[in-house]
């Protein structure tokens, strides 16, 4: 008789708990993406990879972008295809409320990192003040990205040498590719 009561309680509990367990296991709809106005100039990049040739003709510069944290941040994965040793990294772009600027931080797989900001000027996204610190020391970088159409943009980047002169190290057209991450 006691076993009968325990069995009935267990069955009753199972019927009561089943909907709650099912709800907990059912995936919820993804949260809507709400991109801050200050990052909308970069929205065309999200959801795709972009590739352009390096000046050496042997390597391809690849950048893949997607929103995270419901659109508050833009994440970029970077890889230089064909480099030896392999090189790449990851960037997070965000709106810095205190600085009133789009800021970013980049972490490279060689232990280096960079910080900087982006601004809109004459229809281009400019990165005027990147500071990169890596195994070979500290470098200042400035770059400009300009969207050509829905499937391409140009990128030019210069590095300030130890002699104080700016030297171009990227000048390429990047084309849209499927997101592979």
What can you tell me about this protein's structure?
By secondary structure, this protein is mainly beta. The protein has a single domain (37-178), classed as Calycin beta-barrel core domain (Lipocalin, Beta Barrel). The chain has one helix and ten strands; from the N terminus they run αββββββββββ. The chain has one helix at 2-25; strands spanning 48-53, 60-68, 73-81, 87-96, 101-108, 113-121, 124-134, 137-149, 152-160, 166-178. Strands 1-2-3-4-5-6-7-8-9-10 form a ten-stranded antiparallel β-barrel. The radius of gyration is 24 Å and the shape is globular. The N and C termini lie far apart (59 Å). Mean pLDDT is 86; it is low at 1-25.
Averaging pLDDT over every residue, what do you get? 86
Structural domain tally: 1
Q: Describe the biggest sheet? A: 10 strands, antiparallel, barrel
Residue windows where pLDDT falls under 50 for at least 5 positions: 1-25
Q: And the CATH topology?
A: Lipocalin
| Helix-strand makeup class | mainly beta
Instruction: Give, in order, the helices and strands.
Output: HEEEEEEEEEE
Identify the strand order in the major beta sheet: 1-2-3-4-5-6-7-8-9-10
Strand content: over 45%
Helix content: 10-25%
Total beta strand runs: 10
Q: Radius of gyration in whole Å, from Cα?
A: 24 Å
Counting DSSP H or I runs of 4 or more residues, the number of helices is: 1
Shape: globular
What is the distance, rounded to the nearest whole angstrom, between the alpha carbons of the first and last residues? 59 Å
CATH architecture: Beta Barrel
CATH class, named Mainly Beta
* The CATH homologous superfamily: Calycin beta-barrel core domain
């Amino acid at each position: 008789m006691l076993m009968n009561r325990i069995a009935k309680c267990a069955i009753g509990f199972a019927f009561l708990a089943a909907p709650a367990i099912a709800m907990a296991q059912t995936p919820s709809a993804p949260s809507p993406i709400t991109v801050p106005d200050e990052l909308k100039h970069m929205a065309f990049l999200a959801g795709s990879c972009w590739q352009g040739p390096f000046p050496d003709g042997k390597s391809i510069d690849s950048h893949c972008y997607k929103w995270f944290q419901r659109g508050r941040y833009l994440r970029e994965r970077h890889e230089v295809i064909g480099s030896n040793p392999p090189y790449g990294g990851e960037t997070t772009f965000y709106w810095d409320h205190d600085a009133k600027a789009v800021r970013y931080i980049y972490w490279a797989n060689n232990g280096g990192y960079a910080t900087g900001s982006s601004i809109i000027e004459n229809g281009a996204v400019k990165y005027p003040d990147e500071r990169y610190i890596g195994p070979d020391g500290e470098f200042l970088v400035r770059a400009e990205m300009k969207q050509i159409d829905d499937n391409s943009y140009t990128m030019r980047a210069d590095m300030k040498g130890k002699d104080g002169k700016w030297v171009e190290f990227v000048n390429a057209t990047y084309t849209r590719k499927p997101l592979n991450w």
